[in-house]
C-alpha cells in the first residue's frame, strides 16, 4: 500500500506496474485497498482502461473502490469522463451510498463535460441523498439551498462553483461564492477561472483584487488567471501593476507566468515590453517563443517573427506545429509564397502531413498568395478534415470572388454531415458580399439562425450590412443596423458609411458618421471616413475640423499596403 501510494505521489508508473505484477502473483489484486491505489496510479497517467481492468478484478467492491474509479474517470478531462456516471449508477444498484469524495468527483466530471443536469442532481445529493428523485429542476434545488441554508464544506463548494461556471451558470456560481466567508486560494482561483470561461474578464479582476484585499495570498494559478483577464481587457495600466506584484513576489521566475506576461503585453499593444520580458527570461520553453512570435504577428511585424524562428533553430529548440502555423502566418503577411512552399515540403519530410492545423494554415496562405488551385488541391488531398479545414477553403473561394464554389462547398459540407460554425457563415456572407449575391447572402443568414440556431455576432451583421450596402440597398442596411445592440454596431456602421460615400448619400452618411464617432471616439479610421464624406460633399471646413481632432487626440491611422515577392531580395528560412 505505502509503496503504491509513493508511486502515485512521485509519478513512478513503471515501478507501479511492477508492483501490480507482484500483487497479482500473491493474489492481492482483488484486495480493495491495493486495487484502489492501482486505479489512482493508472488514472493519473490517463490509462483509464488499465484502471478499469483493476477495478473489475476487485471483489467485493466498497465505497472506496467505486470512488477511486469515479475519481479516475473525473480526472481524465475528455469524453471518457462519462464513465464516472456509469460507475456511479452501478454503485447505486449495489445500494452503496456515496460519500463526500464520491460526490465531489462526480461534480468534477460534470464540470469537465459541461453536464448541468447531472451536476444539479449531484448538488441535490449533497443536500440529501433521498431528495434526488424529488428535485430534478435546477431552480428547485437552488431554492432548497436558500430555504435550508445547508452548509457544505469548502471542497464541495469549490467543486459546485466549478461545475456551475463550466455549465455557463455564472450567476449561480457567484451566489455560492459570495456566501462563503472562509475562502482559500483554490476557491478564488476556481471563481476567477469561471469568470474567464464565461467571458467576464472584469469580474475575474475584481475577484483577484478582493482576494488580495482579504489577505489571501495568490499562487501561480491566481496570477495566470488575472493576467489572462487583463490580456482580454487589454488593460495595460493594471497589467503593469500586476507585473510589478509578480516581480516583488518572485513569480517572474516561473516560465508559465512569464509566458502569460508576454501574451498580456502583446495583447495590450506593448510589444516592446513583451520583448523585454522575453529577453530577460532564462529558462524559455517553446511556448515562450511561440507567444513572442504570435505577438509580432498581431502587430504586423512578420519579419521579427521570422527572425525569432531562426533563433529557435540556432538554439536547437524542437519546434512543433504551433510554431509552423505562426511561421506560415508571417509568410502570409509578407506574401512569401516560396517560403510557404518550403514549410509544405517540410511537413512531408517531418511526417507532419497529417497535422490538420498546419494544413489549414497552408490553405489560407496559398489562397492569400493568389494560388487558389494549390489551396484547393491541398484541401482535396487532405486525409483528415475538420470544420476549420472547410472554413479555410470556403474563405479562400470568397477572397478570390468565387462565391459559386464557396456555396457549392458549403452544400458538400452539409452532405458530409460536418456541422458549420460561426466562422463558416462569416466566410459565406463575406463571399456573397464580394460577389454581390444578395439573395444567396440573405438565405445563408436565415439558414444560420433558423436551421443551425447560431446567434449572429458583430461580424455576421457587418457582412450582411456590407452585402446590402454594396447592392445600393442603404435604407434596408440602415434599418438592420438600428436594431443591433450598440456594442455590435461599430463594424456595421463603418461598412455602411463607406457605402454612403460610394453611392453619394451624404445625408445618411452624416447621420451614420456621428453615430460612429460616438461609438468609437478613439478609432482614427472612423474620423478619416467621416472627414472624407464631408470633403466629398464640399464641406471642407467640417472635414478639416474632424482631421484636426485626430491630431489633437494623437490618433494615427494604420496604413494599408501590398507586398510582392522578389526572388533576388528573398531571405530563406532553413526548416529542418
Structure description:
The chain is mainly alpha-helical and 576 residues long. Among the domains are: 183-281, Serine Threonine Protein Phosphatase 5, Tetratricopeptide repeat (Alpha Horseshoe), CATH 1.25.40; 284-352; 466-557, Serine Threonine Protein Phosphatase 5, Tetratricopeptide repeat, CATH 1.25.40. The chain is built from 33 helices and no strands. Helix 3 packs antiparallel against helix 4 (48-57), helix 12 (185-197) runs antiparallel to helix 13 and helix 20 packs antiparallel against helix 21 (337-349). The two termini are 48 Å apart. Residues 129-146 have low confidence and may be disordered. It holds the Pfam family PPR_2. PPR repeats lie at residues 62-98, 184-218, 285-319, 386-420, 421-451. It comes from Hevea brasiliensis (Para rubber tree). One of its GO terms (molecular function) is mRNA binding. This is Pentacotripeptide-repeat region of PRORP domain-containing protein.
Summarize the structure.
It is built from 33 helices and no strands. The protein is mostly helical and 576 residues long.
How do the helices and strands line up, and which of them pair or pack?
Elements: H1 2-10, H2 13-25, H3 32-44, H4 48-57, H5 63-74, H6 83-93, H7 100-113, H8 116-127, H9 138-148, H10 154-166, H11 170-179, H12 185-197, H13 201-213, H14 220-233, H15 236-249, H16 255-267, H17 271-280, H18 286-298, H19 302-314, H20 321-334, H21 337-349, H22 356-368, H23 372-381, H24 387-399, H25 403-415, H26 422-435, H27 438-451, H28 458-470, H29 474-482, H30 490-502, H31 506-519, H32 524-536, H33 540-552
Helix pairs in contact: 1-2, 1-3, 2-3, 3-4, 3-5, 4-5, 5-6, 5-7, 7-8, 7-10, 8-10, 10-11, 10-12, 11-12, 12-13, 12-14, 13-14, 14-15, 14-16, 15-16, 16-17, 16-18, 17-18, 18-19, 18-20, 19-20, 20-21, 20-22, 22-23, 22-24, 23-24, 24-25, 24-26, 25-26, 26-27, 26-28, 27-28, 28-29, 28-30, 29-30, ...
GO molecular function: mRNA binding
PPR repeats: 62-98, 184-218, 285-319, 386-420, 421-451
Pfam families: E_motif, PPR, PPR_2, PPR_3
